[in-house]
Structures are given as C-alpha cells and as structure tokens.
Amino acid sequence: MWNRRKEEDFVPKPASVPPTQSQLSQEGIPMSTLSGRTLDSTPQQSASSRSANIGKSVTIKGQIFSREDLTIDGEVEGTVELQENRLTVGPNGKVLAGVKAREIVVFGTIHGNVETTDKIDIRKDAKLVGDIKTARIVIEDGAYFKGNIDIIKPEVVRPAAVTAPKVQPAPSVSAPASSPQVTAAAAGANDVKR
Amino acid sequence: MSILDLAGANQGTVTFITGLGHRIYSDDILRTLEAVYGSDDVSVYDPPHMAQFLEQSLEFPDQHFDGALVWDTLQFLPPQILQVAVDRLHRILKPNACMLALFHAEENLEAVPAYSYRIANARSIQLTSRGGTRKAAQHFNNRNLEKLFQDFGSVKFFLTRDHLREVIVRR
Fold first, then answer.
1. What is the ipTM of this complex?
2. Which residue of A125, A128, A145, A153 is the best one to mutate when testing the B interface, meaning the one whose CB has the most B CBs within 10 A?
C-alpha cells in the first residue's frame, strides 16, 4: 500500500547477466585470480586442492608467499616462496626471482636460484638460468638449463623414539643403585628425553 | 667434486654425477655462442663478441672444477675463440683434473651429425642423434689436438665407433 512501487518501475535483472567488475568491487565481494577455485567454493575445501593463478597479462614486482599451489603464466620479479606447495611456471611465465617451493614444474622461464624440498621438473622448451638445490630433478630433452645442480638428500624422518627402560648400571661402590641421588638423576634424564 | 658440463643439461648425466654425490654445473655453450653472435658471422674476428661469449660461458674462479665434460662442443667453436676457450678451461680446472672431449673424424665439415651425449654408466657414454647435421669449424687430427691442449699435462686419444675421436686430457 504505502511506498508501493509501481510494477513497471521494477525492472528485474536477468539472472544470467554476471555482475560487472565495478559492481563486485562496490559490493565488497572478494576478487580472486584463482582459476581452480570458484567464488562459491566452500571453506571446507582442503588446502591442497587450491591453486592460485597469475595470468599471462599480469606483472608482479615484489615478494610472493603462498600456502597453496601457484601457477605463474605472467611475469614475476622478486621472490617466490611456497614452502609446502607446488609452483608451476606456465609456457608464458617469466620469473626473475629466487624461488623456494616443495615442487616446481617449469614450462616457461626462470632466472634465479631455485630451491625445492621435493622435486623440480624442467620441461621441454623451458629455460632455467640459476642454481638449483633439490632432492630430485627431471630435465627433459630440449630444456635449457644453465647453473649448478646440488642434490640435497631429504632428511629421514625418524619415528618417535620409544622410551625403552634404561638398563640399570651395575651397582658400584661409589654410587649404589639404591642411592636417592642416582635415581633422581635417572628420572631427570627421562624427563629430558620426553 | 664439482663437474662442468658444457653440452647442455642431460638427465642421464645429471643423475649419474649427482648420484655419486658430486655437484654438476651445466651450460650449453653452443647455444650461448648463437645467442651472443645472433645473425653475425662467428668466423669473423670480433673481440667484443668473443669477450661477451667467454664472460657468459666460461667465467669461473681459477681451479674451480674437478673435471669437465665438453663433449663435441670444441669442434664447433671458430678457431679464434677455440684457443681462448681451451686456455680458459685450463685455468678453471684444478691440477690433475680430467676433461673429456669428442671430435668427429669426418673430413666433410659441413655435415657433422648432431648428437646429444650422456653418461650411460661408469663404463660407457651414449650418443643420441638429434637429427640433421651441423657445420664444424675445423677438422682435427692428432697433431692439431696435441697442439690445442699443449698446456695440459697429458692428452690421450681413442678412436671410437661412429667416427668419433675420444680425447681425455689431464690438467
């Protein structure tokens, strides 16, 4: 009744028309360059399935830290760190940076030192100029590489030490087993181990 | 140990060297040569280009490497660059370091087959044809080679299959 708009004033927007960039930014809807993640993705998605993408027309100067996989198909100058994730440098990608990642796959170009905890894969037609520190390396024929290769052996993760009961030393004259001092010291040693 | 490989990184060679616990420095000096000279004639004496090539491909501290794999790259360097490059190799290798070089025995310099090389195992190397041919800068006989490596301690020649002369040079 009151303030009732005439029906002709209301022009419904077609549902299929996507909002414009300016509308999105005005409404505060988060923007993303993520190709593998849609805007309606749920937070329940595991971190490992996420992947960020820097498109081929994008240039970035500075530091990149990422906790998800990253694909660079544009130009990056600075440093790139993905300690636990995978970096892919696409065919158009050009990285002038020191790079650290768990795993790196290169289709494009990297100028800079590279460090991986797992593997680096330099594909055909890729170009990498810089020193490599890695646990494993794959170089396809046709790839260009200039630099040092250092293979670092991954640290062997030892299973948690089982606290086996200590063999009691044979009682000596100077320090008998029943001595309160000795037992206290042994208990202290066990505490330190835990 | 630190090993220099000048014919481009190859998976087999990298795996072999690093598997022994050594470090490998890889480069493709013929590609660097092409990049430096571009469309200019490499056979023309050109000191600025020569200096640029040496700076980009063989600029290392003295006595830096324990060994070098140059494969057949030296045969494609023009004479004015070749001797300077060999002198530079002499400088960057440690005393008693060994260098492996291969020279094609074909008389026809225009049609030297293009190969890629890799260490197959401790006893053998493997050639893989890249298809096509490449123009060598000059033909080498034993006498030429002795003269080329005259500053080194010893030079040994082995004639192998595929019309290749294998040369092991000790610094």
1. 0.87
2. A145
